[in-house]
Amino acid sequence: MKVVVHDFSGHPFQVQLSRELARRGHDVVHSSCAAYVSGKGRLEAEPGETLRFETVGDGIVFDKERFVHRLLMELRLGIDLVKHVRQERPDVVLLSNVQIPTLTLFAFVMMFLRTPWVLWHQDVYSVAVRAFAGEKLSKAFGVVAWGFEVAERFSSRRSRAIVVIADSFVPVHEGWGTADKVTVIPNWAPLDEIVPRERKNDWAVEHQLDDTFTLLYSGTLGLKHDPGLLVQLTKAVQERGRDARLVVVNDGPAVELIRDLAARESVPVTLLPFQPYERLPEVLATGDVLVVLLDQQAGAFSVPSKTLSYLCAGRPVVGLMPAENSASDLIRSTGGFVAPPSSDSVPAVADWVADLMDEPDRRDEVGRASRELAEREFALETCGDAFEKILLESARR
């Protein structure tokens, strides 16, 4: 079976799935969009591997501040994605993290090309946009949210099968009339690539972070986050008489916001761009506590993949995020701490972090529990079996 796996973001566990499918003897082409700036997985073939890596949308630049421009670029990406699939002529396509304009154009063209494809539904974008329209964006975006829902429902109906990452997605697809082709497969992180490292490692030494307690955030910072909470939390820990430094690994406009807030609040901060994927285990090992942010409006319809990477790294995790999010259950089960994503939650989170600083044995215990949970939950063989079955059935149907 020839498979094109297109993950817009280029995230690690989607890449790992492609490697697993190729290991099982399938002809796999993994593509992503280089223009999207985020933490990437290993997007190069290793010696002896049979899968190929390609990029789609070369030359595209996304400007989040210009809605119409971004819309046009996402439509252009849809055209490039169609060309990519026509060139490869796969038996089946698996799409992940694809933006709604790109997905809709792709789904429409596939009706005529009759190429079967599977939607790997990572976010219900229309629900997220509708929620933010009432909270953070102008009312005009309510109309945009309606249009996105129509487009997302249309695309879901055109797909041969749908994989969702949490049970909370199922009622949405029941409303769209697509629940009959939905399979729930929770996300995971690559256990063999993101492994625990010593706290004092080469990366920590290089950035002078080996001898200071760090609160570390590594990952995207977008609409679903409130970057100011990171500064508030670090400040609150300091006010409890603890010496702590904030470390943020990210590229994007949130970096300047954090820099300005940290300077205003006299919070020590280290701001770094996304690091090479092979150094991610060292990066995460440098965090004494790893922080997850997710806006309340995202609710149950977005599972931050950074949480899963954090657990693999074997570090204590604290989440400022909705309690109903499935990642919250994972954090709590390891002895980590979860609180609503608001300033009102910061004192309680700071108390937990300060207590953890005073108890290194408990800190190590929570870290070990994180890794043990990851090893139980993120078995690639089980996920590979499920995806392989869905792709084979979709290609044959």
Pick out its properties:
397 residues; alpha/beta; Rossmann fold; 7-stranded parallel β-sheet; 6-stranded parallel β-sheet; 15 helices; 47% helix; globular
Please outline the helices and strands:
Blueprint: E1 2-7, H1 12-23, E2 27-32, E3 52-55, H2 67-88, E4 92-96, H3 100-113, E5 117-121, H4 125-135, H5 140-158, E6 161-164, H6 170-176, E7 182-184, H7 202-206, E8 213-218, H8 228-239, E9 244-249, H9 254-265, E10 269-272, H10 280-285, E11 289-293, H11 305-313, E12 317-320, H12 326-333, E13 337-339, H13 346-358, H14 360-377, H15 380-396
Parallel strand pairs: 1-2, 1-4, 2-3, 4-5, 5-6, 6-7, 8-9, 8-11, 9-10, 11-12, 12-13
The mean pLDDT is 91
Helix content: 40-55%
- Strand fraction: 15-25%
Structural class: alpha/beta
Q: Enter the CATH topology name of the largest domain.
A: Rossmann fold
Q: Strand-and-helix sequence, N→C?
A: EHEEHEHEHHEHEHEHEHEHEHEHEHHH
CATH class type of the largest domain: Alpha Beta
Strand order of the largest sheet: 3-2-1-4-5-6-7
In the residues, how many domains can be counted? Answer: 2
| Broad shape | globular
Helical element count? 15
Terminal Cα separation, in Å?
13 Å
Unreliable spans are: none
Number of strands: 13
In the CATH hierarchy, the architecture of the largest domain is 3-Layer(aba) Sandwich
Radius of gyration, in angstroms, nearest whole number: 21 Å
Largest sheet: 7 strands, parallel
Instruction: State the CATH superfamily name of the largest domain.
Output: Glycogen Phosphorylase B
